[in-house]
Amino acid sequence: MRNYDGLNQLGRLLSESMKEEEKRRVGGNRRNKNTLIAVQKEILQEIASQSGRYGHKLTVLLTTLKELEEAITMQKQHLNWHSDAEREAINQEIERFNRLQQEAATVRHHLIIHREAMGLWAHHDVFRLYPVPPALPLLEPQGSSREADGSALSS
Questions:
Q1: What is the C-alpha separation between 114 and 132, in angstroms, rounded?
Q2: What are the tens digits of pLDDT across the range 30-62?
């Protein structure tokens, strides 16, 4: 009977040891799972934050473009068409507008790429919320337009 008592005692010790190991393993998995969840949450926050930065930058650019386009329109309305200096000043503003327009188009494109990386494929809202205006044409020098040389009347 002594052998059986020793075996029973050994079995209990092994059983307790296995239970403790299982607790450690499950506890470790829980810690690993909590760490994984924390990392996933941080990644999602960073993704959302980057999307927000793109959106904010686009909003600032589009507001600036709208204000600049209104100023250019006003300058054109009061333009002395015989003044090359005024036309050149307006063309500089148009070139600034076109640079900002290109930057806005690029940022919007980056936002779309970012969304696609997250698995979002429909971009209708992006185009609706962030409408990038077309580039503006430069004013032609005096005497080069069709109206200036009278060719518009002869056609």
A1: 18
A2: 677 788 888 888 887 888 788 889 999 999 999
